[in-house]
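Backbones bend. To wit:
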Amino acid sequence: MRTWVACHNAYLKINMTQPYLFAKIDLQLIRTLHTLLIERSVSKTAMRLGQQQPAVSVALKRLRDLTGDPILVRSGTGMVPTDVGLQMLAPVTQILQSAESLFSPIRAFEPAKASETFRIAASDTLDPLFLPAVMARVKSLAPGCRVEVHALSGQAQYAADLAQGLIDVVIGNWAQPSEELHRAHLFEDEVVCLVSHKHPAVRRGWTQNDWLACEHIAPTPAYPGWRGVIDEHLDRLALTRNITARCAHFGLMPRMVASSLLVLTTGHQYCQRFLQGSESHRGLSVLPCPVEFPKMVYYQLWHERSHASAAAKWLREQVKISAAQLPQPQTSINLI
C-alpha cells in the first residue's frame, strides 16, 4: 500500500509540474535506460536489446535531453554512470518490475510464438549433459526465443541479478541456498574423487589423513570469503585439506589432474560424463572419497519478481524436465 501511495504521489507531482515528460517517455525508453546503466556500454546495450547501435545512441541522447545529465560518461576505456545515473537505477528497475507484474501473470505464454530472451546463470560443476539438454529443449519448443547461459557469479551478485531481472533463473549447488529466493530441487550427486591413474591411491587406497594430505585442486573463489560445498563441510568437521592449485575454469581441471598427482573432489555424474566423452581421458580414475560427504544437491533459484510470470514459469518447467530426463549414472564407482 505504501508503495502505491508513493508512486501515486510521485505521478501527481510530475503530472502537475512537468506534464510534457509523459509525452516523451515510453516503456522502451525506460528499458533502454535500465540496460545502459547495467551494461555501461551503448554497443552491449544494443546487443542485449536486439537493436542497432545508432538507435541506442539516439535513445541515450533523448535521455540526456530529458534529464539534463550525461547519465554515462567516459572513464578510461569504458563508461560509468554519473551520480544521477546511479540514483536512477533503483526506480527504473522498480518501474520495469511493476510493468512486468502488471501483464505477465495474465498473459498466456505460447512457446511456439514467443520471442522472449531467457537468461540462465549456472555452475560449471553441473552434469555436462544437463545444460545442453535445457538448451535443446527450449530451442525446440520455443524457436523464436533467445537463450543466454551465464557463468554463476558470487552469491551476493546472483541474488542481485535475479532481483534486477538480469537473470531469470540460477542453477547450482549450495549447502544453504538463500532463504530470500524461491527454489526447487533438481537432482543430487555423490561426492567422489578424480585422480590420475598413476596416483598412489589407485593402487593402495587411502585413509582420511592420506586424502587430507594429498595435493588438491579446487575452484578459484567466486568472491572474497567464498567457500565451496566441499570445504564448507570440512569446516564443520574441523578438517582442512591441502589445496595447492586453484582454477577458475572447472572444465580444465580433469586434464590438470591427468597430468599430475592432484586430487579433484566433485560430483560423480560430472566425472563419469567427462570420462565417457573421449579416449584422451583414459588416464584418469574415479575413487571413493574417504571423508563422508552428504550428497551434492542442485537447485534452481528465482526471485519473487518472476515467480508469477508465465514465461518464467515455463522456463523453470523446462529446466525441471531436463533434469528429470538425465541418463542415470552407474551407481558403483569404477576405476577407469
Remarks:
- Residues 1-17, 331-336 have pLDDT under 50 and may be disordered.
- DSSP finds 13 helices and twelve strands in the chain.
